[in-house]
Amino acid sequence: MASILPETSVFLYSYVRKEAVLSSQIEGTQSSLSDLLLFENEEAPGVPLDDVQEVSNYVSALEHGMKRLREGFPISLRLICELHEILLSKSRGSQKNPGEFRTSQNWIGGTRPGNARFVPPPPQEVMPCLDRLEKFLHDEPEKTSPLLKAALAHVQFETIHPFLDGNGRVGRLLITLLLCAEGTLRQPLLYLSLFFKTHRNLYYDLLNQVRDEGDWEAWLLFFFEGVAVTGEQAFQTATRLNGLFQADRDRIAGIGRAAHSALELHRHFQAHPVGSVREARTSLHLSIPTLHSAAKHLVRLGILRELPTKGTKHLYAYGAFLDTLNADSDG
Hints:
Blueprint: H1 8-26, H2 33-41, H3 49-70, H4 77-88, H5 123-137, H6 146-160, H7 167-181, H8 193-198, H9 200-213, H10 216-253, H11 259-271, E1 274-276, H12 277-284, H13 288-300, E2 305-307, E3 315-317, H14 319-326
Antiparallel strand pairs: 1-3, 2-3
Helix pairs in contact: 1-3, 2-3, 3-4, 3-7, 4-7, 5-6, 6-7, 6-10, 9-10, 10-11, 10-14, 11-12, 11-13, 12-13
C-alpha cells in the first residue's frame, strides 16, 4: 500500500481515525468518522460528546503506542497500562481504574458470574497470567512468527480480561502495535476492527471455542482470513483515493490562474479532510484571502462542501474522500 501512496501520512491520518471509530462502535458508541474529525476541530454542533471523546482517546492511545515503539520501548505490561489509561481518560470508563489491572472479579454477559457468558480468571491469577503473556510477547520460551503471535496474544489478552473496562479496545490496539513492533508493518495501516464488527457473533464464538475446547485452529483461520480481507480492503481504498485525488487535481488545473493556490489547499485537505482555511494557513503559508478564494473554487467544483459551525470560522469537508474511506464500513 505504501508503494502506491505518494504520501503515506495522507492516508494514515484518516485511516487511523476510521479504525478508532470502528473499534469504539464494537463497544456501543455511535460516533462517526465525521463526528470525530469535527470534534477535533472544536467547531462541531451536536456531536455526541461522550462517544466522540472515547473515539478520540483511541486515536491518542495509538499515537502514544507508536511513539513509544519508535523510542525503542517494547510491547510490555507497562505499555499496556499506559494505553489503557489514555483510552479511559475523560470518558465513560474514567471511574474504572484507568491504567490499573483489576483486583476484583469481572465477567462478560449476564448479571453475575453464575449466569455469565464468560468468566475471566479470578483476580489473584491475573498477574501470573499477564506475566506469562508478556514472556510470550518477548519470544520466551521461543520465537513465534509475528502474525501467529498477534493472533494467539489477542485471544490470551481477551481471555485474561485484565481491566475492569476497555479490554476489547486495548486488545485490538495490541494487534496493530505488535505487528509494527515486529517489523511486519512499517506504518499502522492494518486494522481488524471492521472484520471483527462484521463477523461479531462468529468472533465471540471462536474465542469461546478456544477457551472451552482448545480449538485454536478455527480461531487462527478466522484471524488470518481477517488479515487478508482487511489488507485487501485497505489496498483498494488507497487505490480509489489515489484515483480521486488525481481526478480532482485535473479538474482544478482547468480553472486558470487560481489553480496553484487551489491545488495547495486541495493537498491540505487530502491529509485533513475536515478543517478550516485558518488551519490550512499554518502549513501552506498563503494569505487568508487567497485561501478563502481557493476554498470557494473547490466548493464550486464540488470538491469541498462547507459545514455549519457553532463559531465564526468557515469549516469544510472533503466529501468524496470521506465517502471513499467509509465505503466498506456502512452500517
